[in-house]
Specification:
The complex is a heterodimer of chains A (90) and B (459). Chain A is built from four helices and no strands. Chain A is an all-alpha fold and 90 residues long. In chain A, helix 2 runs antiparallel to helix 4. Chain A is flat. Chain B is an alpha/beta fold and 459 residues long. Chain B is 59% helix and 6% strand. Chain B has 17 helices and six strands. Chain B has a six-stranded parallel β-sheet with strand order 3-2-1-4-5-6. In chain B, helix 14 links the parallel strand 2 and strand 3. Chain B is globular and about 80 Å long. The chains are: A mainly alpha (90), B alpha/beta (459). At the A-B interface, helix 1, helix 2, helix 3 and helix 4 of A face helix 1, helix 2, helix 3, helix 4 and helix 8 of B.
Chain lengths: 90, 459
């Protein structure tokens, strides 16, 4: 039980930190921020790697989770980078 | 302490290091000068976190195949996609992230949850992941205009009902099914209802409200990952997921504020059911103008502000707009672009389009910066924008959009409105700007009209 309280604490602090860090984002960066954050949500890939694989169903599910999370990670970072490269100052 | 415990603590320390990189990465992503580096740092953090997790992988070959397939598909889409299709592509990727967490929770359910906490977390993660997936797919369909469903249609009502049923069923799964174990396979029903519920969540929302939905789904995908982290007792998942949840939430709030509406109103009410108080029908005269007359006015202007909206994206007019801007500058005119936060279909949509057309970002201004000096601007060119320049928002307390912050184009000396026809904007509100004394309507396709102006300048 204690571990959940501890990790719940990490969760709340991280959300609060996130809100503080990005509260004043310029509108030029709204799309790149969203797509960059989107790539980060591909962190689910780490979760997919530590799943159990006792049954066939579990093996299939974790394989699918790895594949879709990877699309999210690679696609997200690449497109964000492509977009940011277009932003130029005068 | 045996060797396995040692490895695990080293792994956890590396996770903490990776979390720090994620935090610095997303912080830098929020500033223009450091954004590229921030994105790189966050990718590095991802690489480290994934690499160090490989210690736990039982069957590395299968995992590597999965990653290779994902990497190929993801990279192909990311490198091939046109900048005009960015909104639907972000929605699609977002959905895949949600789908991954959905599968993770599903798989965990089958490994027999050890305690009640974990059981509850599995239910919640399944739900958020599933709703993020099917909701994002609907958002993708709407943004790419493959999916057209009327808000009042029977399908919309059916799915909206299913969304509410899915929430009730989630509570049933959390609180009841654990104690009074049902004789039927309640989890499979939860899986199905969750996906249907996600469709129902997004289906009634459309058009100009899309930026809010897509930000919210972005936030959900992060929250889903964070809950998966709690479920799997993994700290880097929690930290990274929470950061995404927070950034999506901030964008959602910015979008809602830019429309002066609450998030609840956007999601569950929409413009249609708002009571329209005093609806003063505009009966003034619309003054049309042709390209050559517009050229004569622009040629003598010393300052111009371009105000783009979704119509510019539809007409693909960003490149000719930039060309016109450059010609005006050569002519000694000061050119700036007024960008409303909710112009377009996703946060920052106009900024990306203009960046693609090589418009430098320091000539892009936000409403608050330009409104005070609007009366000193010679010409405001409104391209395919409507609600975000509607003066009713400041002048007509009975209007459904009253109170929404707008770009006060009507205060400029002359306003050109580029429009196909006299139809009203997404909010369904007539725009008095079109009937103003200083407004000239340039009817027709925006790309052709601007192209015509460019030709006039070149001659």
């Amino acid at each position: 039980m204690e571990i959940y309280v501890l990790l719940g604490f990490v969760l709340i602090l991280s959300i609060y930190l996130g809100l503080e860090l990005i509260s004043k984002v310029p509108s030029t960066l709204h799309t790149p921020l969203m797509s960059g954050a989107n790539a980060i949500s591909g962190i689910a890939l780490v979760g997919a790697l530590i799943l159990g694989s006792d049954t066939n169903l579990q093996q299939i599910l974790s394989f699918l989770a790895v594949t879709f999370a990877s699309i999210n990670v690679f696609g997200g970072y690449l497109v964000t980078n492509r977009m940011l490269k277009m932003f130029k100052k005068k | 302490m045996n060797i396995f415990e040692n490895i695990e603590s080293i792994q956890n320390i590396i996770y903490i290091f990776s979390s720090i990189l994620f935090i610095s990465g997303i912080k830098m992503l929020g500033k223009e000068d450091t954004a590229v580096k921030g994105n790189f740092l966050s990718a590095l953090a991802m690489f480290i976190a994934v690499s160090v997790t490989f210690i736990n992988v039982i069957n590395p070959l299968i995992v590597l195949i999965g990653i290779a397939i994902g990497a190929t598909i993801g990279s192909l889409i990311a490198l091939k996609v046109k900048m005009t299709s960015i909104p639907e592509m972000v929605a699609l990727f977002n959905g895949f992230g949600g789908l991954a967490t959905f599968f993770i929770a599903w798989s965990e359910f089958n490994s027999i949850p050890t305690n009640t906490f974990q059981y509850v977390l599995i239910m919640i993660t399944t739900y958020i992941g599933g709703v993020t997936f099917s909701g994002s797919i609907i958002a993708y369909g709407k943004l790419s205009e493959r999916l057209k469903i009327e808000k009042s249609s029977i399908i919309t009502k059916l799915f909206t009902t299913l969304f509410y049923i899915s929430i009730i069923y989630l509570f049933y799964s959390i609180f009841v099914a654990k104690i009074f174990i049902p004789s039927f396979d309640f989890f499979t029903i939860l899986l199905i209802l969750t996906l249907l519920g996600g469709i129902g969540f997004v289906i009634p929302i459309g058009g100009g409200d899309m930026p809010v939905v897509i930000s919210l789904l972005n936030s959900f995908s992060g929250i889903a990952a964070a809950f998966a982290g709690l479920m799997l007792l993994n700290n880097v998942l929690i930290v990274a997921g929470s950061l995404v949840g927070a950034s999506g939430l901030i964008l959602t709030i910015i979008m809602a504020k830019a429309m002066n509406r609450s998030i609840g109103n956007i999601l569950f009410v929409g413009y249609a059911s708002k009571s329209s108080g005093s609806k003063s029908e505009e009966t003034g005269e619309v003054k049309a103008i042709n390209v050559s007359d517009a050229y004569l006015i622009l040629e003598n202007a010393s300052s111009v502000i371009v105000i783009p909206g979704y119509g510019m994206a539809v007409a693909q007019a960003q490149h000719v707009v930039r060309e016109l801007g450059e010609l005006l500058e050569e002519n000694g005119t000061e050119v700036r672009y007024g960008i409303h936060p909710v112009a377009g279909r996703m946060p920052g949509h106009m900024n990306v389009l203009l960046a693609e057309a090589n418009v430098p970002y320091d000539v892009l201004v936000e409403p608050d910066d330009i409104n005070p000096s609007m009366d000193s601007i010679d010409v405001a060119i409104v391209i395919g924008a409507n609600d975000v320049v509607n003066p009713s928002a400041t002048e007509e307390p009975g209007s459904p959009i009253y109170g929404m912050p707008i770009i006060e184009a009507h205060n400029a000396r002359t306003v050109f409105v580029l429009k196909r026809s006299m139809s009203s904007g997404f909010a369904g509100v007539q725009n008095p700007l079109f009937f103003r004394e200083n407004t000239r309507m340039l009817f027709g396709d925006a790309k052709e009209s601007i192209g015509g102006l460019v030709t006039e300048f070149k001659e």
